[in-house]
Amino acid sequence: MNTIMKLKKEIILLPVLLTLVTMTLSTRGQSNKLPGNPALVSSAKDLQKLIDADIGNHKYQVEDYFASPKSSDFQLSPTGRYLSFKERDDQGRNHVMIKEVATGKTTRAIEEKQDVIIGYGWATDERLLYLMDRSGSENYHLYAINRDGTNDKDLTPYEGVKATILERLPEQKESIIVKMNKDNKQRFEPYKIDINSGETLKLYDLSDKEDPIDSYNFDKDGHLRGFMKIHNEKEMQYFYRPEGNTGYRLVNTMNWYEKFTILSFNYASKNPDDAYILTNNDSDKARIVLYDLRRNRVLKKIFSDKDYDAAKLSLSANRKWKIDYLEYDGEKHIIKPLSRFFKTIYKNLQTQFKGYQFELTGSTDDEKQYLVKVTSDRQYGRFYRYDTETGKATLMYDLMPQLKEEDMAVMQPITFTSRDGLTLHGYITLPKEALKGEKVPMIVNPHGGPQGVRDLWGFNPETQLFASRGFATLQINFRISDGYGTAFYHAGFKQAGRKIMDDLEDGVRYAISKGWADPDRVGIYGGSHGGYATLMGLIKTPDLYKAGVDYVGISSIYTFFDNMPEYWIPLAGMLKDVWYDLDDLKEAKIAKDVSPIFHTEKIKAPLFVVQGGNDPRVNILESDQIVEALRKKGVEVPYMVKYDEGHGFIREENRIMFYKAMIGFFRQHL
Question: What is the pTM for the complete model shown?
């Protein structure tokens, strides 16, 4: 156990520790080949019984929702001469293809083999970058490859190291800046890498005596201008180097949950120290301001919204760094056009795609051609190529043509008040039976996190699958969900398993009061924190939820803290705020009260547990121990583990099997 998270050894906690030691010993050491205890995993025959429970003549099968599109992830090369995309083969693997626009000639650039391509993009017209994951470990490797598939090079060839792209350099396209925890697993440092040779240069040497750095800010020329340090576990300190100076000076000290984020330096200004900042230091909702980092003062308010946090802006490198538009999430995704150039684009797209949501996913360097993805709650997605000279968007590809919009369910935004007076937002997706006035079975789907994320409006294959089988889906952005301001965020601190669960329950009561849900057929399903909430829902309100699916969920706050990845250790103080401080006797007792592993006798409803064997965030122990504890009490718990997955299933065959088993489980029990 890491000393930073070491439990107090007061007598009151001895039963807790003894229980955890017993569980740990009983689930480890039983196989040298696979993580966890493979003996606990349900047989293929037993899992097939769940799959077979999805009886009926359905128009759409699970594969229709969860198989990868035949083609996806379209991107334009910098000049627009080439169009790249992922193409799915018969084995469900997604290779990166290159199409020469003028001739239509298509070739394969990147072959997906055992490891999954997490993401890719163009560096130049001749060379691409891509990230690969090693069996769900999240220790991503960054590669570069020529357009014709030659000179495939691992730019970060280090075992057990996580690489993340920090900065693309528009004026030095043969180089890229990444951060890696190469020299210290708990600390990420920035490196400049030549994408052709792989030559690597460390740009900042973070000594072990220094506070860890959470984020770095480089300008377009690749100069390190500032960084955010984690101080005293729960504070953030921003350091900045003014133009012409050699050292970094402290600009701002704040609580870790406050924002002071450089979105971009203001390259249109004569003052090199001007930057666009996303901040809530002096407001409840995050806003975007123009800030003088040398003089440490706000120059101008750019944007704020009274109900939601601002999020990001887009600048035009081709048109003197003007702000084209702002983006944030309200009930739906919102784009605010600012420049005259983009206002024309926005008006044209609104006219052509009225009633739909659209986003610009890429452009050529000269900004004459854009890729536009068009979606809605009933439309999975279509890619269009937009020409700024004609003002027209031309359809390139329909990602899921088999899913007809008229057959898909509507996702409806909802708002209600919690039992303690908070305004809560969320979404209800209703099957056609509910629209006819019937009360239908409902699945509550709490999101992960719990902090830093929220549910969004748009096409959701999970809710559509549920609707196709007659289930409503309820998604609540409970207290601590992102985007609703500091007070709402802070209201969820140390409320995991408590008021967060109340918010979910209040949402269920709201749905029942509206006549949508059958109160005797409510289930709960979620991943990560949502899996934890599933377990707590079955424990806290056993008469409310009639079945649950725990997907990579936490079963003990103690073992969750004990098994976190090394690079989370500097974030321990923040996790103590979000969850509970186990070094505090009172909070440690609360943590036991809301750790499902200690209350398995209260679980009466059927439970299905699903886990990735290599999960670095929620160790397989979390699922093993809840399954083992329940089975010792004579409770049958189907348990699916995929040993080539991590924190969620990204491989198509595993994804499809999971959803087939889950929908069968819910049809069997709701």
Answer: 0.93
